[in-house]
Design brief:
The protein is mostly helical. It contains three helices and no strands. The two termini are about 25 Å apart.
């Protein structure tokens, strides 16, 4: 998705009249609050990145 995809997602989710709003809402699965930030989740992600290195831990190391 990348930065540009996230920007598209944010714009669509902020505007119920956007052509992609319903598609993104269905894909995301819950109501999206762009002002919500969970510091505990962010810390867990950074700890995982520090432990496992680049990529996601469930991806192959090949």
């Amino acid at each position: 998705m990348g930065v540009h995809g996230y920007e598209e997602f944010m714009i669509a989710m902020a505007n119920p009249n956007d052509a992609n709003h319903q598609q993104f809402k269905t894909w995301y699965g819950i109501d999206f609050d762009p002002t919500l930030f969970d510091i505990r989740s962010a810390r867990r992600i950074f700890m995982m990145l520090d432990h496992f290195g680049r990529g996601y831990p469930w991806e192959g190391r090949g």
